[in-house]
Design brief:
The protein has helices spanning 36-48, 121-125, 128-142, 146-170, 179-217, 250-268, 289-292, 295-316, 335-345, 396-399, and strands at residues 2-11, 14-20, 24-29, 67-76, 79-88, 94-97, 100-102, 113-116, 224-228, 279-284, 287-288, 323-327, 350-355, 369-373, 376-382, 392-393. It has 404 residues and is of the alpha+beta class. The chain has two domains: 1-112 and 323-374, Rossmann fold; 118-316, Glutathione S-transferase Yfyf (Class Pi), Chain A, domain 2 (Up-down Bundle). The strands form three sheets. The protein has a seven-stranded mixed sheet with strand order 8-12-13-3-14-15-16, with helices on both faces. Strand 12 (323-327), helix 9 and strand 13 form a beta-alpha-beta unit. It is globular, with a radius of gyration of 23 Å.
């Protein structure tokens, strides 16, 4: 897949923007706060239906505006398709494909994007919600219908938890809450599907994560992935990842765990078991990455998760490679890891790199560089031929021989 053109209106710091992209490497260069990451964020949103920086959509809409608009022309081989997204501060978002209205969860069927960013370090070092978010966004990309399943689970969870909080405030007991069984049925049906899909994802990621880690770190530290499940007794949200290894059907385990925890749930006004309390445990050298891995090892694991995601999508998608976005990643890596990462991504159909300084980006990825400044897309960059100093922007007129 190739993103040929991106148009923005009232998105983040852009009143309007037009960005043309080419196959192969594209570099967006600009100081921090100029808007280069906002361009990457807009492209990735079409594929994941979420931002890698914020959990809500309102911050994506330019201050003083009610809605932001993202439009992208994509190429899948000889086929062209235009995706349009309207992000509303209030109310539901709207989408179009080829000019026809569709549900927003249809967009990931056409947009395949994997984004690397400094925030990815939180996947391995942050709290369990960071790892759940990583897994769920990849689930949506692999199987777009999971977007609806995850949304339905969240709604059911909120309604069930609201009932528990109300019962707690009124001092009600389980026998006085016949409707709780109805919510349990819905929670089990949706949650079991999510748990099973996440388990398959971890299995499918295992081999590509190991290969990517060896490619990035130059060493084999035996990276491992395993879900700690609250329905098996683990409670990662409370810092406990020990679980009963006993086998059983997911729905049966889930329902039994809800019954076991019902008194505690009524006492606390919380839903204490389900995929919203699970954690993806990451290990290298047999030890949890969180708390044991070095900074370099943590970065290698985070990068490996993204590279493995790209490999899964590449293998499964009939539309070609996913677009790879490396958002301010090279500045975080040492020279060896920079070179290794550049070598790994070089054969993807399209790579988009953002950087504050073009010199941070390995030479093979610097072929098409564009300056971003104050929410404006300027002309191509001209590298200094001798001393490697910071590149300067060349206006489109100057690039064609006219005056700047």
């Amino acid at each position: 897949m190739i993103v040929e053109h991106l148009s923005l209106k009232d998105f983040r710091n852009y009143a309007e923007a037009e960005l043309a992209l080419i196959p192969g490497p594209n570099v967006l260069v600009g100081r921090n706060g100029q808007g280069k990451t906002n361009l990457a964020e807009a492209i990735a949103y079409l594929a994941t239906l979420g931002s890698h920086r914020v959990s809500a959509d309102a911050p994506l809409v330019r201050e003083g505006c009610d809605a932001a608009f993202v439009r992208a022309r994509l190429a899948h081989g000889e086929r062209r398709v235009t995706l349009e997204l309207q992000l509303n501060k209030q109310g539901s978002n709207k989408a179009r494909i080829g000019g026809s209205p569709v549900r927003t969860n249809e967009l990931p069927r056409y947009a395949q994007v994997v984004l690397f960013a400094p925030e990815d370090l939180q996947i391995v070092r942050g709290d369990p919600s960071s790892r759940r978010r990583f897994a769920d966004q990849l689930l949506i990309q692999r199987t777009p219908r999971m977007s609806a399943v995850l949304a339905d689970y969240d709604r059911t969870l909120r309604q069930r938890t609201a009932l528990l909080k109300s019962a707690r405030a009124r001092g009600m007991k389980s026998a006085q809450l016949p409707t709780l069984d109805v919510w349990d049925d819905k929670l089990v049906a949706l949650g079991s599907e999510i748990i099973d899909a996440r388990a398959r994802l971890a299995q499918d990621l295992a081999a590509p994560v190991s290969a990517a880690y060896a490619a990035i770190a130059g060493e084999d530290h035996r990276p491992e992935l395993e879900w700690a499940l609250s329905i098996r007794g683990a409670d990662p949200e409370e810092g406990d990842d020990h679980q009963d290894p006993a086998a059983g059907a997911t729905a049966e385990l889930f329902r039994a765990a809800l019954q076991e925890k019902r008194a505690a749930e009524l006492d606390r006004g919380l839903t204490l078991v389900g995929p919203h309390r699970d954690d993806l445990i990451l290990r290298v050298r047999g030890l949890p990455v969180k708390g044991y891995a070095s900074h370099g090892e943590s970065w290698s694991v985070a990068l490996s998760l993204r590279l493995a995601s790209a490999e899964l999508l590449r293998a499964e998608s009939p539309g070609g490679d996913p677009v790879l976005i490396l958002d301010d990643v090279f500045a975080e890596l040492d020279a060896d890891r920079r070179a290794r990462l550049a070598g790994v991504v070089a054969d993807y159909e399209q790579v988009i790199v953002t950087a504050a300084v073009a010199g941070d980006v390995p030479e093979p990825l610097r072929a098409n560089a564009v300056r971003i400044e104050s929410g404006r897309v300027l002309g191509p960059l001209r590298e200094h031929p001798l001393d490697g100093s910071s590149p300067v922007a060349v206006s489109p007129a100057a690039a064609e021989g006219g005056a700047e």
